[in-house]
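A further point concerns the way the authors explain their paired sequence and structure data. Showing the layout once, in full, would remove most of the difficulty. For illustration, here is how one protein appears when written out as sequence plus structure tokens:
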Amino acid sequence: MRPRPLYDVVAVLARLGVGLVFMAHGWQKIEAGITATGRSFDDLGVPLPTAAAVYAAFAELLGGAALIAGLALPVTGLLLFADMVGAFVFVHAGEGLFLVDGTTVENGYELVLVLGLASLLFAAGAGGRLTLDQWIVTKRLRRTDDDEEDAASFVKSLRQAETQSETMKQPRKHRARRSAKNPPPAEASAEPSAAEGSEDDLLVAGPRKAARKHRARGARPAETAETAPADDKNDAT
């Protein structure tokens, strides 16, 4: 199994080499002029030569820079691979493998083949971790992790607030239950009033009885006074 840091360094070097080659060819086409490049494509039998020249020039220049930076590697790799497929089919397929055979220029497809397959390899994810794509992904993951942590802390604070409110409500419920279980006795409250009423009756009845006794005492001497003369009369007779 390959060491990951070594693989990342090698991937950077590969992207750098392939990207420089693409940028050189793209700049060559732009420097020569899009019109002149389109005419040469027309002479080679490329369909839509002007549009093909524009696509090839800017795809190779900007795509090579994107390969070096490691930006949008899947898209960049596919665009460069499509460019090399067109060059292979319309220009280099019938010229053999070698670009130069001895002292003669054969214009073969060896360079187009290598560049196209390397672009496809980068599009498949062989660009390594030292890329702008990886940096953007890790930054987004950190943001999502921070958002998840914030959401978790917010939910935790809400739960703590709910538990605190429940604990505050529980003593009130216990007090209400206790007051419901032990209501103030109505009879006991009524008894003092009855007792107070009886005491009042006793207080009122006391003077009445005293008055009655006083009257009875006053009536008895009168009766004795009346009966005394009668007795004297009887004695005189």
